[in-house]
Specification:
Length: 212
């Protein structure tokens, strides 16, 4: 069984506001770089047989060179306007993921997604994820909506990639200022919710961390 994990990352963020926050990131570029290195190290430690795909959207720099040397595959959508400047963060993330999907050169049994700067914890148990043949996510009630999911970490079995792409396309082209966490939870057909997953989350806008 061969799995991969896609890390979505923007080290050098702009100052453009988001639709839910005037501050796009409270962290400096150096801090974001160091935090993303931590993400990669945690994947190597707790998912050692999983290939790492890092998809970025920053100018070419020493940051990019150093990160590219730490992963199996590195792609950069340098200066992509949706990722860099859109007030809808969900659309930027989807743009990064779709680019990573388009670059896949292998048949993976499962594709995992983790947000850059977030860190897998000792409480993470990959074996419970391997047993599910559905898109597996962490349940959320943080967005004021009953049916919602966190998008910082989830698993997509190979047989569900087309379904996820369908929802991504629908979100990109038919919604405006919608919550991606709620949209996916309500539109994905093959989905399993976990309550606890073992991921340290660093909220970019609020300088707040929490382990889910």
């Amino acid at each position: 069984m061969t799995d991969c994990i896609i890390i979505t990352s923007v080290i050098e963020t702009t100052n453009k506001p988001l639709n839910y926050s005037k501050i796009r990131s409270v962290y400096s570029h150096q801090q974001r770089f160091e935090q993303t290195l931590e993400t990669i190290e945690s994947v190597r430690k707790y998912m050692p047989s999983t290939e790492i795909i890092l998809v970025e959207c920053s100018p070419q720099s020493e940051y990019m060179k150093a990160l590219s040397e730490k992963v199996d595959y590195f792609y950069n959508l340098e200066f992509n306007q949706v990722v860099n400047n859109s007030p809808e963060k969900g659309k930027g993330e989807i743009t990064l993921l779709l680019h990573a999907f388009s670059k896949l050169t292998k048949h993976y049994t499962n594709i995992y997604k983790i947000t850059g700067r977030y860190v897998i914890q000792p409480s993470f148990d990959k074996s419970i994820w391997d047993g599910s043949d559905t898109i597996t996510v962490c349940k959320s009630n943080r967005y004021g909506m009953e049916n919602s999911m966190h998008t910082f970490f989830y698993k997509i079995p190979n047989n569900c990639i087309s379904e996820l792409k369908r929802c991504f396309d629908l979100f990109l082209h038919t919604t405006k200022n919608k919550c991606i966490e709620n949209f996916l939870a309500n539109n994905l057909k093959n989905i399993t919710f976990f309550d606890k997953i073992g991921i340290l989350v660093r909220w970019s806008c609020y300088n707040f961390t929490h382990i889910f």
